[in-house]
UniProtKB/TrEMBL annotation:
The lineage of its organism: Bacteria, Pseudomonadati, Pseudomonadota, Betaproteobacteria, Burkholderiales. The keyword Transmembrane helix does not apply. This is Adenine phosphoribosyltransferase. Catalyzes a salvage reaction resulting in the formation of AMP, that is energically less costly than de novo synthesis. Its EC number is 2.4.2.7. It comes from Comamonas flocculans.
Length: 185
């Protein structure tokens, strides 16, 4: 985790929307982090400083549809790396590989271009938050199908009460998150 002051600063710019999209849900809205240029810079710089380190440096950054595209593409740019979008089914025009995962009520499928990564590439997977972990797990599996090594998953927010971060760690994925909304906070 970053220093408490950065965590607190970022947390103070995440809006909680009660009862959205359903009653009882506390939606964590990251758009205020993106709207203020100073806050957005702190957010991106926190990730950049972590992944500039030689031991943590990826070969490629992959972002999960859709908010992972925002952070992932800017991070890739700042690190001088390529960016790979992992999209919802039916959005990519070239040959793809697919992974279907379970949601609370149904399932979803994500896709990746078959030539998006090379075998042996060290890949960082980025999303805005980790809830149940299904999307990040599906992205990890897609990248591994192509022979890449997914060495870490990164997100702004962790919602540990939904079990996703634990599930991902149990599957062998190291995680880096900036703000934890566990314990009802």
């Amino acid at each position: 985790m970053p220093t408490p002051s950065i965590t607190d600063y970022l947390r103070s710019h995440i809006r909680t929307v009660p009862d959205w999209p359903a009653p009882g849900v506390q939606f964590r809205d990251i758009t205020p982090l993106l709207q203020d240029p100073r806050v957005f810079r702190v957010l991106i710089d926190t990730f950049v400083h972590r992944y500039m380190d030689r031991a943590q440096r990826p070969d490629v950054v992959a972002g999960l549809d859709a908010r992972g595209f925002i952070i992932g593409s800017v991070l890739a740019y700042e690190l001088g790396l390529g960016f790979v979008p992992i999209r919802k089914k039916g959005k990519l025009p070239f040959t793809t590989v697919q992974e279907t995962y379970e949601l609370e009520y149904g399932s979803a499928t994500v896709e990746l271009h078959a030539d998006a990564v090379r075998p042996g590439d060290r890949v960082l997977v980025v999303d805005d938050l980790i809830a149940t972990g299904g999307t990040m797990m599906a992205g990890k599996k897609l990248l591994e199908k192509l022979g890449a090594e997914v060495f870490e998953g990164a997100a702004i927010v962790d919602l540990p009460e939904l079990g996703g971060s634990q599930r991902l760690r149990e599957a062998g994925l190291a995680l880096f998150t900036l703000v934890d909304f566990g314990g009802g906070n």
